[in-house]
Amino acid sequence: MKLNDKGLLVVLSGPSGVGKGTVRKALFDMPDQNFVYSVSMTTRKMRPGEVDGKDYYFVSREEFEKRIEDGKFLEHAEFVGNYYGTPLDEVNKQLDNGKEVILEIEVEGALQVRDKVKDAVFIFLVPPSKEALYNRLKRRGTESEEVIQERIAKANREFKLAYKYDYIVVNDEVNNAADRIMAIIRAEHAKTWRSIHKYEELLDMKDDKNKGDNK
């Protein structure tokens, strides 16, 4: 077994307003975790309380489009006039260092990653009801009713794509949702195809005569 196995890429996705950021922060508050948050890049304006380089990398539209041309995103999407994307180099560096990389991204971006990274874990976060989703968007107090309705319409389209994910987690209460996601991550690490290389000697995996018996 390598001293520093490659980390797990966990894609946390779902409609805008479902609470992806809040659940992700609860995950990072858990003890004995090895998570790294992959900070996304965006062209939207910074919201009150957000910090550049922590919540997002805030860049101009021109800079973002140049990065698209240069192939520097794992995924990117445009919504309500703004770009969002995941810088590729930083993700690969953290995975190679054995870190669990958490991507908190929109559905369109998650499906791009699904096509590129076959061994990633995809988790679709949903609200307990559509009414709860509307109320969460309304409580933000940062967008007009027109924009909120655009987000609701987009969410209704995204709900139909949940079958493309590995897991669905309901964000009924933040800590409960975080606990469920932690259980998923632990189970993924225990999957045979991810972990069997660690136990070659114990399972006689190097003995050719036993390989056929273990299939």
Compact description:
This protein has 215 residues and is of the alpha/beta class.
What would you say this structure looks like, in words?
With 215 residues, the chain is an alpha/beta fold. The protein has a domain at 9-37 and 100-211: P-loop containing nucleotide triphosphate hydrolases (Rossmann fold). It is 41% helix and 20% strand. The chain contains 9 helices and 9 strands. The chain has helices at 20-28, 61-69, 88-96, 107-116, 130-140, 145-159, 174-190, 192-195, 208-211; strands at residues 9-13, 35-37, 40-42, 56-58, 73-79, 82-87, 100-105, 121-126, 167-170. Strands 2-7-1-8-9 form a 5-stranded parallel β-sheet, with helices on both faces. The protein has a 4-stranded mixed β-sheet with strand order 4-3-6-5. Helix 1 (20-28) crosses helix 7 and helix 5 (130-140) packs antiparallel against helix 6. The model has no long low-confidence stretch (mean pLDDT 88).
Q: Mind sketching the topology for me?
A:
Blueprint: E1 9-13, H1 20-28, E2 35-37, E3 40-42, E4 56-58, H2 61-69, E5 73-79, E6 82-87, H3 88-96, E7 100-105, H4 107-116, E8 121-126, H5 130-140, H6 145-159, E9 167-170, H7 174-190, H8 192-195, H9 208-211
Parallel strand pairs: 1-7, 1-8, 2-7, 3-4, 8-9
Antiparallel strand pairs: 3-6, 5-6
Helix pairs in contact: 1-7, 5-6
- Quote the beta fraction: 15-25%
Just name the CATH architecture of the domain at 9-37 and 100-211.
3-Layer(aba) Sandwich
**Distance N terminus to C terminus?**
21 Å
Q: Please give the order of strands in the largest beta sheet.
A: 2-7-1-8-9
CATH topology of the domain at 9-37 and 100-211: Rossmann fold
Q: What's the overall average pLDDT, rounded?
A: 88
Largest sheet: 5 strands, parallel
CATH structural class of the domain at 9-37 and 100-211: Alpha Beta
How many helices in DSSP terms?
A: 9
> Radius of gyration, rounded?
19 Å
What's the total count of β strands?
A: 9
What is the helix fraction of residues, given as a range? 40-55%
Shape descriptor reads globular
The sequence of SSEs as H and E is EHEEEHEEHEHEHHEHHH
Any low-confidence stretches, pLDDT <50, length ≥5?
none
In CATH, the homologous superfamily of the domain at 9-37 and 100-211 goes by the name P-loop containing nucleotide triphosphate hydrolases
**Structural class based on helices, strands and sheet pairing:** alpha/beta
